[in-house]
Amino acid sequence: MKKKTVKKVTTVIAASAVAASTMITPAIAAGQSAEDDEDGKQQNQQQSKGKAAASNIKEAKIQLEAAKEANQKTAAEEKQAKADYEEAKKQKAEALETAQKAIDNAEQAKANARNTFSEAVTNASNENVEATKKMNQLQANKQEDELTAAQKKQAADAAEQAAQLAKDTLEQTEKSVKVSEEDVRNKQEALEDAKKNLTQAQTAVDNTKNNVEEQKKKVEEARKTVDQATEALNVAIDVKNQAQEKVNLAQEQLDQAAQALAKAQAEAQSPEYKKALQEVEEAQTALSQSEITKNEKQNAVDAAKALLAEAQNKAASAEDENTKAQKETEIAQAEAELVKAGEALQSSEADITVKKQALASAQETLQSLQAAKDQKDTALSQAQNDFQQAQTEIERIQSEVSAKEAEVAKAEANLSAAKTAYETEQNNQKAGEAEQADAEQQLENAKKTQSEAEEKVTEAQKVYDRMVEAQKNAQALALKGSYGFFAYKDKDNKALDILEDTKLKAAGDKVAISSYTEIGNEDDATSLENMKLALEFIKKCNDLRVENGLEPLKVSDEMMAISQVQANWSAFNRTHSRTYYVGENLAWGYQDPFGVWYDSEKKVYEETGSESRTGHYRNIVNKKWAMTGFAVTARGNGLTTEQSFGYAEYYSANAKSFEEYNQEFQEYYNLVMNSSADTSQALEALNTAKQELEEAQKQVEAAVWAIEQAKQKQAEASAKMQQKQQEINNNTQAVQEAQEKLAQAQQKHSQSAEANAAAHTAVEKAEKEAQEARQAVKTQQQAVDQAQNELNLVQASQEEKQKNYDYAFAKVKALGGNTSATAESAATHQTQAEAALAQARAEKIAAENEVNQKQTLLNQAQVESDAADENVKAKENALEKAENALKQLEAETNSSIVKKRADVDEKQNALDIAEKELEEKNVSISDAVEQKNKAEQALEEQEAELSVLQRELAAQTEDAAAAQIEVDKKQAAYDEIKAMIMQLLHAQADYNQKQQEEVTAKTEYKNAQNIVNTLEAALADAKDTQAEAQSKEERAKALSYDAAFLNQIIDPDFTYLNDEISKVKDAQSREALLQKANDAPKQKAAESEEAYGQAKLENVRTLAELAVAQTTYDKYLAEQKAQEAAAQAKADEESRKETEKIRQVFEQKDAADKYDNSKISQKAMSVKTGDKANAGGMLAVAGVAGMIAALAKKIKRREQD
Questions:
Q1: How far apart are CA 138 and CA 127, in angstroms?
Q2: Strands 627-633 and 640-646: what pairing?
Q3: Could you tell me where the DSSP H helices lie in 816-894?
Q4: CB distance 766 to 379 below 8 Å
Q5: Cβ pair 1109, 63 in contact under 8 A
Q6: How far apart are CA 457 and CA 566, in angstroms?
Q7: Which DSSP string do the residues of 736-755 spell out, in sequence order?
Q8: Closest CA to 645 of 550, 529, 714
Q9: What is the largest CA-CA distance in the chain?
Q10: pTM of the prediction?
Q11: Are 886 and 268 within 8 A, CB to CB?
């Protein structure tokens, strides 16, 4: 078929090229075979028969237009055929790829199955190895723990002996140590109090030391202040003296200037001038007199200030003397109190001596009466001894009676105890039976828990194995898309039938609807990503239904599969397939179809009530729908979204709520896409299940142990019941014998009662005499106690007086007084101090009065000074007025006087400045004197404060030393008693430790023995497990993959391998199915290829016809132009060139007339020089022919390939 097609194409091309132009190249002609020539002749003959050649340019043009139209049509058909062929080739390649994947999957399934069979043997072998290893390990552990239990037993015995030894040591120590912890606490509290007193005393010393140092600094600062004030006063005096010298010099210069002025004035003899001069002189005299008065008043003020400062100093000194006198009075008063306290203490000591003598006399009388009492007590003792003997005898007999009674009671008690013990053991037996029943129930529960835990482990192991397998095949599962998800849930899932249904077709369609679905294509509706997106749209739909008060739709695998195949079909057909009994919403090109389905259509429905335009909206809010599926696909032309709606009774197998279904899908999606993380979670779950199994096994072992303990308790109780029954029999006989002996003893007791009565009478007489003697002793003892109480009162009074004396002594010492003062010296000191204080107070008052007087004088002097200052100012104003008048006259009469007057004024100003400066310096001296007095007073105050602090420090230092001595005493006492109590505490601590070690050692022994018992039971279980594992390994080795392919495995431990065989069979079935499905794309590709070849051939044919029509038209066009050129040449015969053109045209016409479609003339192979008329057409035909020849070669070469 291909070779023949190539020949036809070549023939048409060659024939068309020959018919179109005489410029066909030798290369093309040489490339044609005899067979090609024959085909060309036949083709030309067919064309000649079917279509007449054009006879004029008009017909040629019509044929050219028809050829163009035909060529355009065949070119479009060729293009469409090519597109169909490319699509068919693509589908063929995809089908081939899918089939190859199925083959690869089948081979992989076989390899996986064989690996799983191999792993089953390996796992069983490993389990056997592990079980054997565990059994051996338990055996070794049991031997090791038995040795440990023996060692723990020895340790427990040794700890018990050590505890007993520590207890004996503690008891001996308690007997030898007579102090208590209370005694230690008392000593410790006394020590703490002493330390606290010492700390307080030392703190007081430290504080006072700091205060003394601070006060010393203050005194030093005060001294510096005094020195500075003195220095400032001296400087002020020096400055004042300098100012006085300036005043004297200025006065001297003023006098000289005044003399010169007077001399000049004397020379001026006018009466007016003399009068003015006289007025100035008078004013000057008045001013001088007022200034003298002013200076006198100022001097009086300065003198008053000096006197006031002196009086103030005297007052400060008097104050200091008064303070000292008061201090001395206080010391004298303290000395008097000390003497008084000493006298009271001496009086108390004398009284104590008298009381002690009275006490000794009373004690002597008491001793005499005590001797008499002792004689009476001796007589009484003898009588009592006699009575005691009688009493002893009767008591002996009574004891014998009591003993017999006790024996009776003991026998009865033993009998009762035996009966009670028997009942107790009987109860213990019943309790053991109850405990056994309870333990057996616990065992049953524990076994049930163990069974459940084993199931959990088995299930978790399966999940983990499935996760591991899924991890291995994650990529393959991802490529399977929803098909893998449905199969993962259930290999018989009906959704798989929908995806694989090759019979169900849409109306008018030739292929099954499922053939539009391409599992593994990421754009297909079955891809996991698109299914994930589809579930998000279902959630949106359900949210909208809930907003409208409707139940959310459920989701099933079947509905999802229906949506997927329908969406894939509609992506290519852009309409509803109507193949399943479901409602359907479809949208093309929308990222979110609900904007159209719901929002837009809802608006239309609410505004118009139209049902024909709102079907999508009404499907979403239709309360009859119970199920839904959704699909999204990017295949075909853009994005296609589809939602199916179903009734509850259709396609509802394993239907779930959206949340449940989505969770299942997400788990699978994560399993496939994130298999590593899910495998880790599955492993964690498996380990948790194993831990729960181990815990359940421990509970089983504990229940078994409890049953054995309960049985042992029953056995022990039964044995003790037999023992107690024998004791009951023995004690019954003992009671009878004891009652007989008791009757004999009671008879002896009656006989001894009479002798006991006589002895009792003698005792009563002796007791009366002894009682009288005791009363005398008691009375005298009261006298002794009275004397002792009086002595105690005097001694207590002496202690109080001693405290008073000590306080007075400390006070005198702190004040710096005489601690050895007598009453006379104290009285004298007190009299002198009071007199000195009175004198100091008087001097203080006098000094204060003098200060007040000096202050009054100063105030009066200051007033007079101020008045003098005002008078000076008035005189200065009068002088200034007179001088101005004089100056005016002088200015009018004599310039010399004016100059001298100006000189006098200048000198007067200098004097005024100097006097003002002197006045300021006098004020500075007064201030400096005042500052010095204040500084000296502050120094005296700081020195007095320092003296007080130093005396206080001395007293506090003595108190601290006494407190230190007291601490040393209390520390020694505490150390002594602490050493005694520590011996007892160490013994107690050692006993507690040894006792705890004994409990620990016994507990460890008990635990070790329990471990041995547990291991013994575990070892038995391990042996059973090992035997089972060995059997499993042998059965695993007998397995055969080939045999299992024919017959299912029935061994429950290996039935899971049937799943692997099923996977292989499923993969092989899918392989065959896809191989078969591959035939249709192959056939379609072959048909498309044939159609494409025919379309290309037809297009080449029309192209060749177009070239011929074009050439024919060009030929007639050339003739027309030749005729026109000939006419033009005739009109212009003068031009040779034009004549030559006519000749050439005729030659060209002649060549065209000789054109032959069936033969190729060698002459036509070339173009004559100057043959221009047909050059364009020839070149065009040659170009088309070359293009067609090249195309033919390309087609032929591709077909050969």
A1: 16
A2: antiparallel
A3: 823-893
A4: yes
A5: yes
A6: 43
A7: HHHHHHHHHHHHHHHHHHHH
A8: 550
A9: 212
A10: 0.28
A11: no
